[in-house]
Amino acid sequence: MGGFLEIHISVCIVMCMRTNIVLDEALVKEAVRLTGIKTRRALVHEALRTLIESRKRRNLFDLRGKIKFAPGYDYKASRG
Questions:
Q1: Given pLDDT bands bounded at 50, 70 and 90, which one contains residue 55?
Q2: Contact 37, 43 (CB under 8 A)
């Protein structure tokens, strides 16, 4: 190696963790009925995705009326 020592370090950080939660059985049954999702794990994942999407959308609505467009810009023209 010509006096050089090469060390390759691979670091893998996994952003998953196990947790135990108690779910309301009536909510689980209704969620299964409405979504067709069969596993509790998949239901929780879908619920989290839906919550995040909803909150992000709400944050966008909070910007309503706060964005100033350049003079002469026709935002409606870009809608087609």
A1: confident
A2: yes
